[in-house]
């Protein structure tokens, strides 16, 4: 068992592996620390062990904070639990690359998870840990995708769940949550209001809020995206990753995953340039980056990228530090750029993403247009969610023709406008 303890990211005070998330000495966030000293050395053996694991995130159980330890070669233990996430496609996107004047672009399509977003990775880990700690009820404060995933995991595991969302969320995300039979609570306010309410509730109830008191475990789940990208590239690092930023957890933990494997000798080379992507209507991290600041000033979100609409990002300072030390950056794009990028990605790759993926694709296009990306770089574009969940964003972006069911009607009405 490699997982060791929790540690404050600021003052390094140590804590036991319980449902704790904030340092009581300095109020810094806690994170999981591992001791991999037993597994360093034989890289070939480590890789074989991973490759022999199940076709889901539990193949990386050695690097996840589960007291139950790795599931063993067959992955029996962990793959039995709930809704296995991960092992999503990494697609070489030559047509997109060509449109942008680049040579090697890969799309990591994390919409291909059980509830169609990368959140299944973090929820699987948090909920598995919650069960180990004896919790019977799971909960979350969500911008949408987390709601879908927590509700579905509750259903799969037979646990009670409480899901708190801003009341004005996309209808698709509300329907795709309530259907699982969760206790769904719409809160009048934005995500930051929902989060504040949930933090208060968390102090009063014996619930596992996956992104509050279980946050140190939850965050670790995002490392599996990095592990998969590296494994799918044949145990190589990309040169650059474009990643959406809401709280900044995904962005920083993808980098942590690359670093952890490099420290263990599983990967060779430099940390990829890490580019964070935000919507202009909620860009506290991009604004702080542009201003050369170390901390983010909270904002009131107003953007079609609702899944990224966190005005007060918990991991903002760490995201800024990562963007700078990796030679990447953090950029923001407008709602119109997001819509255009959803269409560009769909037309060139066959991948239909939600608004968050429009944000990353638009940032990629912007960096390429600015000449910031060397044409020979290997770039990974992280697509975190599914287009069917944010249909309003693309409504009206193309024309449909309706005709009578006859060849004449087709010839008269359509033929001159479509190439057949
Ligand atoms: C939650 C979410 C993110 C990023 O979340 P972080 O809080 O930054 O970890 C990105 N994309 C989608 C679609 C999401 O739902
Ligand atoms: Zn501390």
Can you describe this structure in just a few lines?
By secondary structure, the protein is of the alpha/beta class.
Write the layout of secondary structure elements.
Blueprint: E1 3-8, E2 14-15, E3 30-34, H1 43-51, H2 76-79, E4 90-92, H3 94-100, E5 104-109, H4 119-132, E6 137-141, H5 145-157, E7 160-166, H6 171-178, E8 183-187, H7 191-204, E9 208-209, H8 215-220, H9 223-232, E10 240-244, H10 249-263, E11 273-279, H11 284-291, H12 316-325, E12 329-333, H13 335-349, H14 355-369, E13 378-383, H15 407-413
Parallel strand pairs: 5-13, 6-7, 6-9, 7-8, 10-11, 10-13, 11-12
Antiparallel strand pairs: 1-2, 1-3, 4-5
The structure holds pyridoxal-5'-phosphate and zinc ion.
Pyridoxal-5'-phosphate binds near residues 248, 249 and 307.
Question: Can you tag this structure with a few keywords?
Answer:
Rossmann fold, four-stranded parallel β-sheet, alpha/beta, six-stranded mixed β-sheet, binds zinc ion, 420 residues
Structure characterization notes:
The chain is α/β, with parallel strands linked by helices and 420 residues long. Helices cover 37% and strands 15% of the residues. It contains 15 helices and 13 strands. The chain has helices at residues 43-51, 76-79, 94-100, 119-132, 145-157, 171-178, 191-204, 215-220, 223-232, 249-263, 284-291, 316-325, 335-349, 355-369, 407-413, and strands at residues 3-8, 14-15, 30-34, 90-92, 104-109, 137-141, 160-166, 183-187, 208-209, 240-244, 273-279, 329-333, 378-383. The protein has a six-stranded mixed β-sheet, with helices on both faces. Helix 3 crosses helix 13, helix 11 (284-291) packs across helix 12 (316-325) and helix 13 (335-349) packs across helix 14 (355-369). The longest helix has 15 residues, at 249-263. The protein is globular. The N and C termini lie far apart (61 Å). The relative contact order is 0.12. Residues 8, 10-11, 13, 23, 25-26, 28 line the site of zinc ion.
């Amino acid at each position: 068992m490699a997982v060791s303890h929790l540690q404050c990211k600021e003052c390094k005070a140590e804590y036991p592996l319980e449902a704790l998330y904030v340092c009581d000495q300095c109020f810094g966030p806690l994170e999981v620390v591992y001791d991999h000293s037993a597994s360093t050395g034989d890289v070939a053996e480590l890789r074989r062990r991973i490759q022999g694991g199940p076709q889901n995130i539990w193949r990386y159980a050695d690097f996840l904070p589960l007291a139950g330890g790795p599931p063993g070669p067959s992955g029996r233990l962990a793959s039995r639990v709930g809704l296995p996430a991960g092992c999503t496609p990494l697609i070489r996107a030559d047509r997109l690359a060509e449109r942008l004047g680049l040579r090697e672009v890969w799309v990591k399509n994390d919409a291909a998870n059980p509830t169609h977003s990368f959140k299944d990775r973090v929820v699987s880990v948090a909920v598995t840990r919650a069960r180990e700690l004896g919790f019977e009820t799971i909960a979350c404060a969500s911008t949408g995708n987390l709601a879908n995933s927590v509700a579905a995991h509750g259903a799969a595991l037979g646990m009670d769940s409480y899901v708190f969302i801003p009341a004005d969320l996309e209808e698709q995300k509300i329907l795709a949550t309530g259907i699982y039979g969760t206790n769904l609570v719409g809160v009048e306010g934005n995500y930051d209001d929902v989060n504040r309410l949930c933090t208060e509730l968390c102090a009063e109830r014996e619930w596992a809020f996956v992104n509050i008191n279980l946050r140190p475990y939850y965050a670790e789940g995002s490392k599996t995206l990095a592990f998969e990208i590296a494994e799918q590239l044949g145990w190589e690092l990309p040169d650059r990753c474009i990643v959406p930023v809401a709280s900044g957890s995904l962005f920083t933990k993808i980098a942590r995953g690359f670093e952890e494997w490099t420290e263990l000798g599983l990967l060779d080379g430099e940390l990829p340039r890490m580019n964070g992507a935000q919507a202009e209507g909620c860009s506290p991290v991009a604004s702080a980056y542009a201003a050369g600041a170390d901390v983010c000033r909270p904002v009131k979100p107003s953007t079609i990228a609702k899944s990224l609409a966190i005005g007060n990002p918990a991991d903002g300072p760490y995201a800024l530090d990562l963007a700078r030390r990796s030679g990447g950056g953090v950029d923001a794009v407008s709602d119109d750029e997001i819509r255009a990028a959803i269409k560009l990605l769909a037309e060139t790759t066959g991948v239909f993403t939600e608004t968050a993926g429009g944000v990353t694709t638009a940032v990629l296009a912007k960096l390429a247009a600015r000449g910031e990306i060397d044409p020979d770089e290997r770039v990974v574009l992280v697509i975190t969610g599914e287009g069917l969940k944010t249909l309003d964003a693309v409504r009206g972006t193309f024309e449909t023709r309706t005709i009578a069911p006859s060849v004449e009607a087709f010839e008269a009405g359509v033929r001159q406008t479509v190439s057949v």
